[in-house]
Amino acid sequence: MAIPKHDDIRIYALKHLADNGDVKLKEFEQPLAQQFGLTGEEISQMYDSGKGPVFYDRVAWALSYLSMAKLVDKPKRGLYRINKLGVEMLTKPDEIEKFVQEQVKGRTSLKSKDESATDPVVIDSDMTPQEQLYNSFESIRLSVYDEIIDTIISKSPYEFEHLVVNLLEKMGYGGQVKDAGSVTQASNDGGIDGIIKEDVLGLGRIHIQAKRYGRTNTVGREEVQKFVGALAVAQSNKGIFITTSSYSKGAREYANNLNGSTGRCQDSCND
Question: Do 163 and 85 lie in a common domain?
């Protein structure tokens, strides 16, 4: 069963309070999970951001809305108790959701008028405010990602190679070696776009292939094979292949079957 939304949880949380008196927040999780027939995996499922379990968060917000609607009291922090109004509303369960929405809207409208503040609670959504925040963040992140990719694709292949070398240096490749990275001459690169020295003497080297491709293009197996061949000619067993697009299934399978003997195919700005 899918994890219930916070507005689906409210009535069952209210009933649980009516049957059990004062209940701590953490004591709602298991009874409500049983009510909805959730599995252990669903109960422990985390947000994609990794910041908290989904079901527990929705239970907390269901109780928060019940509290804002004055259907439950909070004798102390983290403890909930149904009041007379809450008991009365349980006699007409079909009206609870509408009542909660009206009460919360009324409270937040007054706050906005008195404080000239924007209402932080969106009750017309089946997402909790925390989930709305996560979704907004993800939307912004993807928008920025698209802008960055578009900017990178607009550059020349040579400019992209410089960008990749600089990026890898910033990520720590080359260690403390000054000016560890360099871009090879376009006319005679031998299939190697850049090199990063791993030590002062330059005995250890990482060879780089950088493909500035459009979003719809893919790097195929043949291109990865050519890079592996270039590594063999350079007598190198360390290679990083980076692209602005993606890799075909054949390219991935080929890279995975190399067993780390000659190089590796690494997802780029696209992952």
Answer: no
Q: Comparing C-alpha atoms, which of 207, 229, 221, 228 is closest to residue 251?
A: 221
Least confident among 16-25, 44-53, 114-123: 114-123
Q: How many domains does the chain have?
A: 2
Measured distance CA(27)–CA(7) in Å, rounded: 19
Neighbours of 37 (CB within 10 A): 8
Same domain for 27 and 120, yes or no, is yes
pTM > 0.70: yes or no: no
66 close to 74: Cβ distance less than 8 angstroms: no
pLDDT in tens, 129-140: 666 666 666 666
Number of Cβ atoms within 10 Å of the Cβ of 204: 14
264 bridge partner residues: 240
158's tokens: 């040579």
- Please report, for residues 144, 214, 243, 251, the alpha-carbon distance to residue 217 in angstroms, rounded to integers and kept in the order given: 21, 5, 10, 13
**Domain span at residue 37?**
6-136
Residue 102 contacts residue 110 (beta carbons within 8 Å): no
Q: In this structure, is residue 142 part of a structural domain?
A: no
pLDDT at 110: 46
CA distances from 195 to 133, 177, 199, 205 (A): 42, 13, 12, 7
Structure tokens at 187: 């006319």
